[in-house]
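> example.struct
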């Protein structure tokens, strides 16, 4: 039976009655549904809400938010539940607002290379819709996350080294504020100097400033040619130094992923690959056929300088798909190293010049831990992850992980990095946000108190209020 974090709370009778009247069968307090909506992808035990509403429109969102504010009841927006820092855990109870039924693709412009979607649209759904248009949406966090959730958490992923993160690819959005008012930020213009950049304020706000109900996205042309490559190295440092040299040489690599030997062993077993058990770079190149060949050749030469062996690249869709599916399945491959346990994931990001140093120090620090701790990451932009495969119910193991995570973050901050490159703050890294930004957190709290004075929207996340 799944352990659940318990707390004394519940929806007020008056609020429950009004929700039932307004939403009918789209409002539920069924225990199983609530548990599902309080469970994230990684390390947190379920912290369920007291009820769930399934929204179908901005008007639904307005009414749910307004009712929750009147009754001073927390409201947590929910996309697909694939976040990893407890963003959807109802730490103070309240209502979960499930946005998955808001899944319409509202508009696509091939000429302007942009699209507008509702928050429940997933990245795979959008790219399937775009398949015959010659366009695609490049942000790929691995999971088939919702666009609304990806916007709220400022998601990133394997393509970020070339195409950027959600921050660079959201042109504008519609959001419902805590008072029930609806605002529109940004627009379809590719640049603007008109006033404060409210779009960037909401991208990465993790549902604490408003509920996003529409997003306008930048799209990109599907490359004429795509090739993938894989190259093993004797050491992590050699692999990272290759990535740094390729970036410094100006080679426009689309994807540049690192997996250490622990994860390569797991991936081989789980995905039925036959790669060397050593630190390995997975790469992808986009462009014309000639450009892709040149990029692969140049990176291969750099890899050889750092001891890379058997640099292999291929353009066939089947081989590329197999390689990247293995990378996306790395989480489940790691869990298979220790059946019955869960993944406790964390990430940091440092200037690329400090990346090799940070990873080497980190691996030395965690080497003695009594459970698997694979290291992997998007080394092209200085971001890497550790996945501690642990027993969440073992206090001794959890203490070791918390201490190792704190040391990792202090190490990254000392190198002028950040406590999270893409996972977000959620409820797991609040104190580290304060370590990173100092008095800047006071300004964040001022913004939160202005837009959400009753602290109704996703309380207990990002900021300690």
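> example.seq
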């Amino acid at each position: 039976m799944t352990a659940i974090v318990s707390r004394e709370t519940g929806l007020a009778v008056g609020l429950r009655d009004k929700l039932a009247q307004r939403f009918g069968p789209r409002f539920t307090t069924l225990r199983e549904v609530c548990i599902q909506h309080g469970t994230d992808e990684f390390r947190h035990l379920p912290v369920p809400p007291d009820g769930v509403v399934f929204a179908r429109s901005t008007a639904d969102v307005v009414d749910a938010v307004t009712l929750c504010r009147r009754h001073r009841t927390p409201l947590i927006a929910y996309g697909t539940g694939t976040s990893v820092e407890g963003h959807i855990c109802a730490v103070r109870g309240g209502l979960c607002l499930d946005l998955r039924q808001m899944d319409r693709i509202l508009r696509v412009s091939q000429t302007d290379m942009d699209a507008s979607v509702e928050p429940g649209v997933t990245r795979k759904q959008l790219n399937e819709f775009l398949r015959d248009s010659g366009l695609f949406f490049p942000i790929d966090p691995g999971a088939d996350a919702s666009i609304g959730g990806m916007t709220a958490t400022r998601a990133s992923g394997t393509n970020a080294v070339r195409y950027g993160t959600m921050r660079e690819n959201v042109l504008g959005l519609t959001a419902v504020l805590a008072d029930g008012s609806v605002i529109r930020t940004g627009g379809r213009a590719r640049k603007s100097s008109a006033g404060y950049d409210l779009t960037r304020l909401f991208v990465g706000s993790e549902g604490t400033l408003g509920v996003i109900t529409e997003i306008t996205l930048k799209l990109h042309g599907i490359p004429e040619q795509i090739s993938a490559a894989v190259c093993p190295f004797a050491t992590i440092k050699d692999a990272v130094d290759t990535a740094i040299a390729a970036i410094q040489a100006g080679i426009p690599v689309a994807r540049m992923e690192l997996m250490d030997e622990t994860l390569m062993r797991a991936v081989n077993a789980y995905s039925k690959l036959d790669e060397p058990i050593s630190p390995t770079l997975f790469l992808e190149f986009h462009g014309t056929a000639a450009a892709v060949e040149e990029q692969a050749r140049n990176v291969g030469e750099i890899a050889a300088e750092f001891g890379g062996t058997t640099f292999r690249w291929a353009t066939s869709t089947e081989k590329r798909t197999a390689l990247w599916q293995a990378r996306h399945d790395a989480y489940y491959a790691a869990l298979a190293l220790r059946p019955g346990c869960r993944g406790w994931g964390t990430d940091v990001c440092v200037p690329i010049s400090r990346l090799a140093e940070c990873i080497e120090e980190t691996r030395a620090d965690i080497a003695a831990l009594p459970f698997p701790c694979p290291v992997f990451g998007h080394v092209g932009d200085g971001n890497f992850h550790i996945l501690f495969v642990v027993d969440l119910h073992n206090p001794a193991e959890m203490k070791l992980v918390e201490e190792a995570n704190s040391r990792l973050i202090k190490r990254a901050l000392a190198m002028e990095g950040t406590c999270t490159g893409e996972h977000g703050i959620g409820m797991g890294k609040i104190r580290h946000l304060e370590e990173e930004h100092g008095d800047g957190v006071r300004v964040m709290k001022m913004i939160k108190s202005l837009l959400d004075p009753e602290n109704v929207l996703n309380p207990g996340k990002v900021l300690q209020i």
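> remarks
The chain has a mean pLDDT of 94.
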